[in-house]
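2 proteins. here.
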Amino acid sequence: MKRLLIAGIGAIALLLIVVVVRTLMHQPPTAVNTAGVEIELNESALAERLSQSIQFQTVSYQSPELKDQSQFSGFIDWVHTSYPSVQESLEYIQLNDSMLYRWPGSDPSLQPILVTGHYDVVPVIPGSESQWQQPPFSGAIVDGTIWGRGALDDKSGVLGILEAVTYLLEAGHQPVRTLYLSFGHDEEIGGPEGAAAVAAYLKDQGVQLAWSLDEGSFIFDGLIAGVDSLVAAINVAEKGTLTLDIVAAAEGGHSSMPPQTSAITDLARAITLLEENPVPGGLEGLAADMFDKISRHMPFVPRVFFANQWLFAGLIDDQLSAAPSTNAMLRTTTAPTMLSGSVKTNVLPIEAVATVNFRIHPRDSMDSVENYVTDLVASDSISVQRRSGANASSVSDWKAPGFAIIAQSMREIHGDIPVAPGLMIAASDSRHYGQMADNAYRFNPLRLTPELLTGFHGTNEKISVADYAQGVRGYIRIIAQGTAK
């Protein structure tokens, strides 16, 4: 017995030593010796132009007849007059209301790159106008902050790119590699006449891009628990989407004589099954690499778990799955969004329908998710019907030159910050542009804090003048380096 006790204590001690040693070795890489780049900008002028752009109500509605064409035409004309050097020096073509520029490089043998954004915005939620601290289309500049719809999503991206190219033109930059700029007008409704038309045009011209950069992730500040520094998360893929109708059928009848089960109760059980049995996932591939890089900057205790996944994999998965933001990185997510049933309070429905939206992880497909749902909930009274969807994008190479250029640019502007590949859990115009690119990256070089998150498609969208100027500096370095060779 004594020998067993000693052996047990020895095994525990050895385990602790292994865990501690692996944790101590799980450190950030040696500091990258990247010299900071000083870029002088007139920040007040930058802010004023962004403010003016926000005042154009370039709202994308699901119903085409609601579109105010004058706002889109006005914005395009304003860009032409506000950025004359871009208009005069670059080739320009307009595809519907989307704007495509080409800056020819001196070496046509090199594959071009594409830097993009979209200038359309989502509507302001009706009735929420009074909740805005500044009117949503005022572009008000108050106490160093620019307010309004599009300040983050995504007029700051479009204008940031235009400001960067203007700066480089005035500095005499001569691109070696050809640069395309595309500014979509309908990203918020899927880009069918904007980015899709641009991608079709590039295909007709025989253009295959080395890489593209679209909106996506940001420079996170305070958004990753346990990490005090800024983190540049560069998305290398985006989720797909699948919308299914879960349909429950029954005989119906009068509510005064309800059966033991009805279409409503059968549907409720099916939805509960979906909620209790999420699509399988886990910390592997892209997500594993992202958390491996980020966790090296965490304090000792949380670092213990990520450094020893062989021991704590189950616990890590449980913890990440419990938070909506990290759960979405691990798996295809399930979100019931719409319900319909009877047309009258005293009528039992003959059909009840739940519409469920899935955001598809790159490891899954529309077919595999639909099959999973069907196997889980289908019965004599429950059927599964596909409404619409699109598979996830391919996963771009985060060891390729394009990713390295974006990463180096962020370190030149912000210092030796962590850079990691990420997965975009929403959708972007890269679903179209990525078809014409060897690698498609999704990243805005702008700082994002927890306070700013609610502005996306919500109220009080804003950006500070200083953060916007830093974003312009980021675009300057990305474009300068991306076209240098």
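next one coming up
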Amino acid sequence: MSTVKFIGFLFGAILAATSSSADEVVVARNVLGPEGPLYFDGNLYFVGWVSDTLSKWDGKKTIVLNHTRGCGHNGLALTKHKTFMLACTDDPGAILELDMTGKQLHRWDTDSDGGKLVGGINDVVVTGNDGVYATVFGPYAGAPTSVIGRILYLAPGSQKWVEVANDLNYANGIGVSPDQKTLYVSETVGNCILRFSIGHDGSLSHRSNFALLNVLTKNRVDSWWLGPDSMKIDAKGNIYVAQWFGGKILKISREGKLLHVFKIAAGYGTTNVAFGPGDDDLYVTAVKDPNDLKARGVVVKIRNVK
């Protein structure tokens, strides 16, 4: 049995949906490094950064679509022409474009200046005109000593990733406002969400602080790596951000006001969130214990609070 088929069998054995708590339903168990949830056309896609996999759950079973060793699959986004942009978080990082079956169409290992993606690529987001932003994170080992976070941009029709922001304190989750005028990005070590104005050419300006998480909600623990982690933005412009080491998804208004805290029982290493149909449900990726090197975790479904 090939490695990919074996992993597909392993994940396929996971999957009848079962209850985690009164408010959570587990849709995928034993995911090694759960991240990048994305719901599209009746299917839930998610990745495992430890298992180096992209998987699809159709509501009954899970199959592995892509297994690329040394990638460390992380952020996942869907382009307007129905391909995936996938962040490889292993350092140095890479960005993959895959078709809907998981076949690799393109791989980028450098930016427009030919520099390697040192620090790893953490997350990606697609804009309304099919441009793509990606975040460069930093080394995840011990206390962080480097400030090397960056934001890269791939213009529509281009094949080169151009740096549009730097000096971020571990750039992580990234999202675009519904009107396409504002970019939000998580600074994990800074415990902060930053905000940028988006130019017509994809350039960024007017960098400002948007939200400091420990002001919005009490820290579960004190850690360099508390978060914010990855994020998604709904049609009203509300931001849903995961708090790694926090066991929470925070819903924040576009004015920066805390609207709701979703506490996740399945694990306190929450990494990301995705919207189900009509934004009625949220799919949350969570690691049971963030100190676990294999990052054993699950994907759960919870009801949204609108």
